[in-house]
Design brief:
mainly alpha; 6 helices; 4 strands; globular
């Protein structure tokens, strides 16, 4: 009968979430940095990379420590459920990519590229809701809601760009880039703490 091992698998799954948030959070920070059009480039880049690397190391350490956990075996339905979750994650992640690519093509064809970053933030935010339901992780509901609200507020209230002392700043890029980065990094930190709590639950980890 098919088998799957926990809690090691649970910790590794949480660690994977941390790695995803570290990577994509840093990518969003890059959008914010680009929106500044060179202003404070070096400092913002250093800080963004440090945060991303910190979370990356945290995720990797969770994976390494998960190998020390006791092997608790569950059979049958649990293994099938785990496989189904993996497939559903792939579908959700794939659809997100398709929607983002489609949005890029539509915005480009309509000559409204300014709209692409807010629309992308909405898509990224929306994809957290099925993930929250799939993995039963409440923090994903919060992340999805914050990302969607950030995109909507940016679209409705903020100017696309401003000029300060002859220096143009892409306000939408800066707001959504750094705002989304903070949300994703915060989610990654919350997942990392969850992983640490899972490690402490296993009395035979040492």
């Amino acid at each position: 009968m098919p088998q799957t091992i926990i809690p090691g698998a649970a910790v590794r799954g949480t660690a994977a979430g941390v790695l995803f948030m570290a990577f994509f959070g840093t990518l969003w920070a890059g959008i914010g940095i680009r929106g500044l059009q060179g202003w404070g480039f070096l400092w913002f880049m250093i800080v963004s990379l440090l945060i991303g690397v910190f979370l990356l190391i945290g995720g990797i350490k969770l994976i390494k420590k998960s190998k020390m956990l006791s092997n608790v075996i569950m059979e049958g339905n649990s293994a099938r459920h785990s496989k189904k979750m993996g497939i559903m994650f792939g579908i959700i992640f794939g659809l997100e990519g398709v929607f983002i690519a489609t949005a890029s093509a539509i915005c480009s064809a309509a000559n409204h590229l300014d709209l692409f970053v807010p629309v992308m933030a909405l898509i990224v935010g929306a994809h957290f809701f099925p993930l929250a339901r799939l993995f039963r992780v409440r923090i994903h509901y919060i992340a999805g809601t914050l990302l969607c609200l950030l995109a909507i507020v940016t679209l409705l209230i903020l100017p696309v760009r401003i000029t300060i002392e002859h220096h143009q700043i892409e306000v939408w890029w800066v707001t959504l880039g750094f705002g989304s980065a903070l949300i994703l990094w915060g989610t990654g930190a919350a997942l990392w703490l969850t992983g640490l709590r899972l490690l402490k639950r296993d009395p035979e980890r040492y």
